[in-house]
Design a protein that fits this description.
Layout (H helix, E strand, L loop, with lengths): L6 E10 L2 E5 L5 E4 L12 E8 L5 E4 L10 E9 L3 E5 L6 E4 L12 E8 L5 E4 L18 E9 L3 E6 L3 E6 L12 E9 L5 E4 L4 H18 L3 E2 L7 H8 L3 H13 L3 E4 L2 E4 L6
Parallel strand pairs: 13-15
Antiparallel strand pairs: 1-2, 1-4, 2-3, 4-5, 6-7, 6-9, 7-8, 9-10, 11-12, 11-14, 12-13, 14-15, 16-18, 17-18
Helix pairs in contact: 1-3
Amino acid sequence: MLEIGRYNELEVKKLSPQGAYLQSELGEILLPRRYVPAGLQQGDRLRVFIYLDSEDRLIATTQRARAQVGEFALLTVKEAGAIGAFLDWGLDKDILVPFAEQNVPMRRGERHLVRLYLDKSERVSASARIDRFLDNERIVLEQGEEVDLVIYQFTDLGAKVIINGIYSGLLFKNELYGRPGIGSRLKGYVKKVRDDKKIDVTLKKSGIQGLDTSRDRILKTLATTGGFLPLTDKSSPDVIAEVLKMSKKTFKKAVGSLYKDGFIDLKEEGIEIRGSREK
């Protein structure tokens, strides 16, 4: 079934001076000549993005859209017009965010996190009203489950995040390592699903798994810095978070474990892979 606002694989029915006509259940769709790959032949199958042009006709392109319908993306405002804001999403035709779908007036050059959808005329549009696309009524998540997170709003408690493109959750401020911004994509874990349908998430695995992850991160960072890191138990939490994306408490626990197992040495000025300076 043809999906407007998404990638589709279609067969080339015929070639013409205007371009390639692709076969679909809704009829032939033109791939304009400027997008036709060299050597394309009748009968070939081609992956194309389908949307409506300025005259509401189905059109195909081989340009790469930064997001498809149903997805979230951080996009730049190219122009603020009389009917809304137009954002750059990688295609020749910019995508519209109507005024009714803006949380605050959008201005040229700004970047906003939006969700792509089809309007009543099946034109691809975008909305910055993220919450209305998230549904916490039927939560199918388990405590400790790994999830994909996208930050979409900051609050006094921390950051509101999109979970797996479906749910809304909260990442508490003490876990916002490295100053992530709106649209930042992170790997996280379900900390708790509350009775009121709210979801708390964390960036740390629980128990021994979390410790193993922190140990691995320290060792991998050491491997890229010549075997030495100028971090100690006296380093500030902000510096540790900036370098290793973990809390000072987690850092101290992981360092203690690595030292006990003989992987690192503790120096007055930092930590060092054991034997890294031996000749």
